[in-house]
Structure formats: structure tokens, C-alpha cells
Amino acid sequence: MITKIIKQLWNEKGDNVWLFVELVIVSIFLWHAVDPLYTLNRASNFPKGFNPENICRVYIHKYEKYNKEYDASVDNETDDASITAVFNNIVSLPEIESYYGGFGIPYSGTFSTIHLYYNENGEEDNGEGRKDIEPYYYAAERGEFFKVLQIKDIKTGQYLTQLQKGEIQLSRSAAMELFGTTDCIGREVENEYGIRKLKITGVYEDFQPNPYMIPEPTVVANYADNPPEFIYMRLKEGVDRDSFIKRFNEELRPTLRVGNRYAGTMVDFEYVIEQNMYNVIHESKNRFQLFISFFALFCAFLGIVSTFWIRTNDRRGEIGIMRSVGASRRRIIGQFVTEALLLVTMAFAVALPLIIHIVASNDFAQPLSATNEQLAAYSNIFAPLPRFAVITATTYFIIAATAVIAAVIPAAKASNTNIANTLKEE
Q: I want to staple 319 with a disulfide (CB 3.0 to 4.6 A). Which of 4, 27, 189, 414 is the partner?
């Protein structure tokens, strides 16, 4: 049967050549549409490196002069004391297990970058031997950053202690990039061209600053003079977060005012992510890429379906002849499905070398550099050969399944039509 079908395809090569060319183009086009779906899905499901569950956030706001609630009798010099008083009233609530006050947290879109330098040749080398790294920076002015996020020290497995002013803690990858080792406790680094020296007091496991980013180097530091204006807190196990947030906003928040400082609305961590991820460049680009990929899949589906549907419908008379000589409905459908799969397979075989050439020229096969175990694991999920194999197999399956559907439905419909009616179309 296969030999007969191949001969028939060859005899109808004039009609099939454009379909063949279309399938080659669609194969290349669709492969590049499936690739971002694969990579973004793998990246978003990669372990975050921290635990976002049961975390809430509260801002400490300030009444300004234009606000009717402003108290003009309050001295601006007492503003820091007012922040501290509101801060302490919030973190003393019995439902709170741990808290952290600062200006950045993973996925919040508020982190920034900072240059760190380590001079391995001493101070007298006029800048020679300086190693530069630009990690994501999280300010931790008060509380237990690592306990809130449940990030642990790489050696002790315990939560790192609260940072004092002038201290800094590095992620595993940041330590490896600066020193080539994680044994760097007690060493000093400089920030922003030697403006300030910071003492390293801990090294922690890497985490993702953004759900679509690899676990890049990060640093947590404390060198602020002013008390923080927002608080992240982890609730104790067994505390219902939604109920606590509702009670805080309705009952407790109105009482939390000192001077011109007051507690804002408490929100959960998921809200923080949703609110801020729209402002992250990576997220915007990835949303656009997802839209383009799904649109490409939709266009490819419509193109394949319409082509095979028209091709099968144009052969209704042939189906009538097959039925008149005793061909069963199953045999008729089987022939059209086999033809569709053969055309798809041959076209894909031609497209595959072109796909390989295109992706290789775009450095697809270049492995990610890995400075620690987590980055190595991240690199492994994008290993070129498995990634290429999965995307290629997925692309072929989508095209083949679409072609089969587009061949089966009209063939089944035609084979159920009265033989005389189908013969009239021959």
C-alpha cells in the first residue's frame, strides 16, 4: 500500500509540490515558535531557590502637607522615630514568625544592581588585579531577610544572621565569580569604585530574581542610615494568611499611625509579583514572545488544515471510485492519512538540516557557563541536544497531527456520501 501511495504522490507531483514547499516552510517557522514555549516553560518551572508562600507586605506611608490628615505640629526631625514606631508595632503582632524591612525582594521589580570589587593584590597596585561583578542588590536594613524567604547558608544549612551596617552577604555564584571559592567569610569587597568597604559575613544559596531569569549572582547588604519604609513578613505556620490580611486591613491598620506615618494596605506576595512583574523588562519581552509563539502556532494550524482540507475535498470523485470498487471506509481514510503523514515526513526531513543550520548559526549549541551547582542544573535543562530533540519532536507531532485531522474529517465525510453524488464530482 505504501508503494502504491508513493507512486500516486509522484504522479500528482505537480499538485503536491506546492504543498511540499509549504510544509517545509511551516516546519522551519513552527520550530522557532515552539522553542520559546519550551524554554519559557522550563525557566518558569525551575526551582525558585526561596519559598514565597505565606508572605505579606506592608508599606509605611507618610501624610504630606497637601493631605488633610497632615499634622503640622509634628517635627520632621522625628520622622525616623515615627517610622520605627509603626514598624515595631507591626512586627510585634503575634501571628508574625519573621520579618524583613528593606527595599527589594525577589520578583518585586524593586531590586537594583551594584558593582562589587575585590582587589586580590592589595591596595598598592594602582587598581591592577581588581575583579568586578555586578550582582542584583537587595537592601536589608532591618530584620531577617533570609528567614523570611527561607534561604539558607551553604555551609551550615541555617538562616544567616541579621546584617549589621557595613556587612554584606553573597550568593554562591557571586562568591565564585569574585573569589573562585565560597570560603570568603571575613574578606572585604568595595562597592562603586571604592566608596565603601563591606565585610562578607555569609554565603547563601542562589535564587531567581525573576521567574524568567537564570539564578544570577545576588548580594544582600546593609548600609542605610534610615529605617525602612516597608516590611515583608512571614506568618507562623497554621495562620490563615487571607484571614490575617483581612483583619489587619479592617481592624488593625487604622490604629497604626505615629506622627505623619501610617501603615498602608497589607497585600500577599502573589499580589506583589503580579503588580511588579509588568514593570520588569524581561516579563514584557516574554509576554510578547509568548503571544507571537501562540499566534504562529495558530497561523500554522490554519494553514495546514486549510491546505489538506482543500486537497482532500478536491478528490471526492476519487473517493467515490474507490468506494464503487469495494474499498472500505477505513481503507479510504487510511490512505489519505498515510499520504498526509508521508508528505509531512518528507518535508520535515528536508526542513531539518535547514533548522539545524539556522539554530547553530545563532549559538544555540553554546552551553551556559555555570559557576555553581544551581546554575549548572539550570544549564542542564537547556542542554542543546535534549532541548533540540524535544522541540523537534514536538514540532513534527504538531504538524503531523494537524495534517491527519485535516485529512480524516473531509475523507470520512466524503466516504459517507452517496456513491453517485461523489462520482458526479469526478
A: 414
